[in-house]
Amino acid sequence: MLRLLVGLFICAVLLLPQTVLAKSKIDMARDYVKIERFSEASRLLDELILADPLNATIHYKAALIYEQMGDHRQADRAFRNAAKLGNYGPKIAKSYKDKGYAAIRSGQTGEAQRAFNKATSYDPALSSKLAEDLYYDGEEVASAGNIAAANNYFTIACGMNKSYLKQVSNLYFGLGKKSTGQPMLNFFAATKNYSSHNNWNI
User: Fold this and answer.
1) Are 111 and 103 in contact (CB under 8 A)?
2) pTM: predicted TM-score of the whole model, two decimal places
C-alpha cells in the first residue's frame, strides 16, 4: 500500500506542468534577491530557462528579477526572449517606461533616455504618448520654477518629437513674461535654448 502511495505521488509530481515547478523556483530566486544572494538567484533563473527555454513567462519573470539584481545585460536578454516567444512587448515597455521615469526624477537624463528608447522599441505605439506625457510633466516642473529639472523632461520629449521645441520655447517665454528679476532672465535664457523664434521678443 505504501509503495502504491509513493508511486502515485511520484507520478503526480512528474505530471505537474512545468510552470507550477517554475513558480516555486521563481519565488525562491526572488527570496535570494531580497537577501542579496545574487549568485544563487542567477543559478535558479538559469536552471529555469534551460529547463523550459521556449516559455515566454519564465523569461519575462526572470528578466524582472535580473533587473532587481542590477544585472541589466541579462534582463535585456530575457526581455528580448520573452517578447519573441510571447506577447510581452507592452509589459516590457511599461517596465522600461517606469525605469525611465525613476531615472529622470533622480536627474539621470541619459539613463532615462536609454530606458525610454527601450520602452518604445518594445511598443512603438507608446512613442507619441510618452513624448506628450514628458512634455506636460516638464511643463509642470518648469511652472514651479525648476528649469534644470524641467529640461530633463523637455530634452527627452523634444528628442522624441521635434515639434515640442517650439512649445517649450513658448512656455519658457510665457513664464519669463510673468516673472521679474533673475527668474525672468533664467526663463528667457531657457527660451533661446529650444528655439530662436522668440528671440526678437526678448
Assistant:
1) yes
2) 0.74
